[in-house]
């Protein structure tokens, strides 16, 4: 790439990352990191070290964007007086879903243990969960587990959950092999990173 082309890609990546930070989505950030991890394993640490200057510039840009978006958020919605936790750049990420998700997952696991092999059938999570919903979650309605692997295990049993895991693993292995065969073609790398992000976001 030319210097101008590299600069344009960097601006695009930083702009997209700003949107991710603004979304305050921990699942989105997990997906982002999974995509990066997949790309790193495909490219190889030696190649990344050779391009370390560009990598460091990119990471420095991401950190700067995070701080800028967090500062803008705190300026537009200042924290309550004396609330030092809410005033930190990580506050919005730390506070999302910390109470309900563990209870939601724990209750789902208990339901899975009642039918671990055969499952309960497609689209049965909602009625089953409503009958055993913890008191602390009664003020909200949950149509899904917010974890595709747990949902597949619950509804389709161990074979369904295992099939989903195997599908994810096979897709990533095939994408990695395709990139290793032709490193000049970025499509397998981009597709594999996108798939890794999707599979991580399903957690």
Could you give a short description of this structure?
The protein has 203 residues and is an all-alpha fold.
Assembly level? single chain
Structural class: mainly alpha
Low-confidence stretches: none
Rounded mean pLDDT score: 86
Query: SSE string, helix = H, strand = E?
Result: HHHHHHHHH
Tally of helical segments: 9
The radius of gyration is: 21 Å
Kindly state the number of beta strands. 0
Largest sheet: none
Looking at the structure, what is the overall shape?
A: flat
Binned, the helix content reads: over 70%
Please give the alpha-carbon distance between the first and last residues. Answer: 36 Å
- Name the beta content range: under 5%
Description:
- By secondary structure, the protein is mainly alpha-helical.
- The protein has 9 helices and no strands.
- α1 (3-23) packs parallel to α4, α2 (26-43) runs antiparallel to α9 (187-201) and α6 packs across α8.
- The model has no long low-confidence stretch (mean pLDDT 86).
